[in-house]
Amino acid sequence: MSITTKLLHTIALVCIAAVGVALVSQHVFDMQPCAWCVLQRLIYIVIALVCWVGVLVLRPGLGHRIVGGTTLILGLLGVMAAWYQYTVAAQMFSCAQTFADRFMVASGLDAGFPWLFGIYATCMDARVNLIGIEYALWSMGLFAVVAFLSALVLIRKR
After folding, report:
1. Are 77 and 70 in contact (CB under 8 A)?
2. Mean per-residue pLDDT of the chain
3. Structural domain boundaries of the chain?
4. Is the predicted pLDDT of residue 125 greater than 90, yes or no?
């Protein structure tokens, strides 16, 4: 197994673990998600799927670089979403009609998979600390790690 394949598997597993932690937080510890929270879950899942499709379908080399570039962009979008949640949305009484809310509702994912993508809290109510650090900052840091690992895949030579 090549280094790029291992990196892609690692990125995918980290993303799935992040969603798993979010689901445990929601369903076990009653930390209800806001629209920006579930949008970030979607980004993590898409990154994992892109990584695994890249490993299973695409050939190493150019195929893995395409995956690396795609996941780098998605990771940076995740950083932006988490940053917006932390700096703007968390200060609002409601995140209704923000991009995240409109996107998740328009996609139908919130109604189709409410246990995963249901929006049950306002952004202000969803401000939760984990070991003294807000969830949004943990997510932003994890997206930064994903983006860094994706950049390694992108620039790695065969």
Report:
1. no
2. 93
3. 3-155
4. no
Q: What is the DSSP letter of 58?
A: S
Tokens of 43: 């980004």
Rounded Cα gap, residues 52 and 94, in angstroms? 36
pTM for this prediction = 0.94
- CATH classification number, 3-155, choose in 3.40.50.300, 1.20.1550.10, 1.10.287.370, 1.10.10.10: 1.20.1550.10
63-90 pLDDT, tens digit each: 899 999 999 999 999 999 999 999 998 8
Quick one: DSSP state of residue 131? T
Which three-class secondary structure string do you get for 70-127? HHHHHHHHHHHHHHHHHHCHHHCCCCCCCHHHHHHHHHCHHHHCHHHHCCCCCCCCCC
What Å distances lie between residue 55 and 37, 47, 69, 95, CA to CA? 28, 12, 14, 37
Confidence of residue 129 (pLDDT cuts 50, 70, 90): confident
Q: Give the CA distances from residue 116 to residues 8, 32, 69, 123, in Å, rounded to whole numbers and listed in that order.
A: 24, 11, 27, 17
Tell whether the model's pLDDT for residue 158 goes beyond 70.
no
